[in-house]
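Pasting as-is:
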Amino acid sequence: MVKYKLLVALILIVTNASFGQERKVVRDFGIWVGAAVQKKVHKNVRLELDQQLRTHVNSTRLDDYLADFGAEYAISKHFDVGANIRYIYNVRRFEGARHDLRYNVDFGFKIDIVKKLRVYYRLRYHQKFETFYQPSKEFNTTIRNRIKLRYKLPKRNQIYLSGEVFRFFPRFGDAYFNTIRLCLGDKVDITSGSIDVAFCYEVEPESSWPASFYFLRIGYVWKP
């Protein structure tokens, strides 16, 4: 009888552990597709309107829809600042869809190491407010550091490699690094603007059970 009870207890433990593992996908693939309009309204000021669709669960389900409006100001040849506001239709897996609002503040630096090889650095601060249509004091704050190397080929292609680290500051609790993102891509200049295609990888560096996410990013920018 004791052995039978121990066996039942062991089965329940294994079952609960398996169920918990099924709720978190540790490896996934998605596709991010976007279209944007960029317009220079002054020699130092550029406006941009961007929309994106993002998928997950091996690209079979919608993850997010994004609508983004921002502005960038070139301080000098090497420095710029920017800000934008983003609406996010967040299709969450277990708790239902949510309407979020986020704003970013950016500081950028760029310099040419040698001819055709350029280094970009971007510091981004952003806050995301959950269910913005309801009064809420909840918000998420993240600081992101991104370094990007771009090499311009003889014709229209600009290949690049970028790495970005996300540091998350929860409202309650200690800050931690929640995402590392790496991308390898190619930006192609065309008559009406540009097309950007990249393959990216994300991982949770400080998670006890880190999730890996691979995604193909395809973006078109129209520059009237």
